[in-house]
Design goal:
The chain crosses the membrane at residues 17-36, 98-118, 124-144, 172-200, 207-227, 247-265, 277-299, 314-333, 345-365. Pfam families: DUF2079. This is DUF2079 domain-containing protein. By secondary structure, the protein is mainly alpha-helical. It folds into two domains: 3-43 and 97-373, no CATH class; 382-476, no CATH class. Helices cover 57% and strands 6% of the residues. Strands 4-3-5-7-6 form a five-stranded mixed β-sheet, sandwiched between helices. Helix 14 (245-254) crosses helix 15.
Length: 481
């Protein structure tokens, strides 16, 4: 190879790298705009955002990471030791939006290892296109638009895990395996299935067994020993109401036909299955080595009869799936190119099909990024200004009860409660403007919250001390000033 050709190749690699950097910066900006605008317009919710934010803030102060919404140590609710380094974000700022910014950055940053994998096996333009499919996948968009979850860190770690796995850099591989496991207790169950992939593709039984054993045992220890130590009394994340995890698994083993029926039905599950693969042009189906892991990811959601929201492509339930489908698309595309190498336009056909099917799927699913094209999304309304006025006068260290969409703006304190629970809080904050979504009130609605508000005043338990429009601040009548 001549010096000129080497220089030319280096220029191409640099150009592609800067395209990836542009995609990273562009989508990070879009995702931050989406998340921060929602939060500023009171579309974040206490039942998710505050249950993560309060323990992180407490941990940054070297205090026990308790969510007073659940009255539970966050490590009992979900075993996620990744929160220890994550809490360091609050050493730099007390603004709760920092975790939304971080989430957007780290979700987008997974494109770097994915591109490094893709460019090793595919033509440069196809490598970039498949990387785009990941960052624009509706499962990633949805994770951004529905508050903060520590699972958003998994794609970044998982993508690097695959990079080091594919390149047989085992020391780094196991470092990222540990990082993946630290995100949530059930991640080990998913990663244990990677042993099948490693054995089939790398023919390395030792690494395959080490991966399966380490991952599976970690999850079992976390669920059965560590979480109960922190206060977990009922781990039923994947079961029927009242069932233990063991009983649910035994029931499925005893009646395997229910696995099939619960995997495909209700029809929403089949739609999620199809649309997930369609988002990557159906190419992941061709790469059989990762199918067991992909199927397990769907099984862990579809066999859960308690939480139907996990059956959809929305929320944060498809973030790890995004990486699995991207890796499968890379190697599936490699197989197609090799099989049809005699066809002149096969590369263009693959690119056209991937982009057209992916973008069509996003349109069908009403992808969250479409909100950014709607001028109404950015509109600041009078009730928002009124609510901000009331929130600004709540004392920093006081205990507070508030409705679902206000609590995320009050999370940095030792005691917060989600209405209708009050728990003798010093202050109560409500916004009673008409036309609100019932989810703003969690288990209640506007009228029930208004009734609670009136009863607290009539019974002289709380007194109104400030109002702005339909937003009110109540203080406990026997409050010790």
């Amino acid at each position: 190879m001549t010096k000129n050709s080497i220089d030319h190749n280096n220029l191409i690699i640099k150009a592609d790298f800067w395209i990836i950097v542009f995609l990273f910066l562009f989508f990070t900006f879009l995702y931050n705009l989406l998340a921060i605008t929602r939060h500023n317009h009171f579309q974040s919710y206490g039942i998710d955002f505050s249950t993560y934010d309060q323990p992180l803030w407490l941990l940054s102060k070297f205090q026990e990471p308790i969510s007073t919404i659940y009255n539970l140590n966050t490590l009992a609710d979900r075993f996620r030791p990744i929160i220890f380094p994550l809490s360091l974000l609050y050493w730099f700022t007390q603004n709760e939006r920092i975790i939304l910014v971080f989430q957007s950055v780290i979700l987008s940053a997974a494109i770097f290892p994915l591109w490094l994998i893709a460019k090793k096996y595919l033509p440069r333009i196809l490598a970039i296109i498949i990387t785009f499919l990941y960052i624009d996948f509706i499962g990633i968009q949805s994770a951004v638009v529905y508050d903060f979850h520590e699972m958003a860190l998994l794609p970044f770690f998982l993508a690097w895990l695959f990079y080091f796995l594919i390149n047989k850099k085992w020391n780094y591989y196991f470092i990222f395996l540990i990082l993946c496991l630290s995100i949530r207790e059930h991640v080990g169950l998913l990663l244990s299935t990677l042993g099948i992939y490693i054995w089939l593709v790398k023919k390395n039984a030792k690494i395959a067994l080490a991966t399966t054993f380490t991952s599976f045992i970690y999850s079992i220890i976390a669920i059965k020993l560590i979480m109960p130590t922190f206060g977990q009394t009922d781990y039923s994340s994947f079961t029927y109401q009242g069932d233990s995890l063991e009983n649910a698994l035994l029931a499925y083993i005893s009646h395997p036909s229910t696995i099939i029926s619960n995997f495909f039905f209700p029809i929403q599950k089949s739609q999620t299955l199809l649309l997930s693969f369609l988002s990557f042009g159906l190419i992941p189906i061709l790469y059989l080595a990762l199918i067991p892991t992909i199927i397990f990811q769907f099984l862990s959601r579809f066999l859960d009869q308690l939480h139907p929201i996990r059956w959809t492509l929305y929320y944060h339930y498809s973030v790890e799936l995004a990486v699995l489908l991207t890796i499968s698309t890379i190697f599936g595309s490699k197989m197609i190119l090799k099989h049809f190498e005699k066809y002149k336009y096969i590369l263009l056909i693959i690119i056209f099909l991937l982009l057209s099917i992916h973008l069509s799927t996003n349109i069908i699913l009403n992808a969250p990024l479409k909100n950014l094209l709607n001028p109404q999304f950015y509109k600041n309304e009078t009730w928002m200004d009124n609510t901000r006025k009331i929130l600004s006068i709540v004392p920093d260290n006081a205990s507070v009860a508030a409705q679902n969409n206000l609590l995320p703006h009050l999370s940095h304190r030792k005691e917060i409660y989600l209405l209708p629970k009050i728990n003798n809080a010093d202050y109560i904050v409500v916004d009673l403007h008409p036309g609100q979504n019932n989810w703003n009130f969690y288990t209640e609605d506007l009228e029930k919250t208004r009734s609670l508000f009136n009863q607290l005043i009539i019974n002289r338990l709380y007194e109104p001390i400030a109002s702005a429009g339909n937003a009110y601040l109540l203080r406990k009548t026997n409050f010790d000033k």
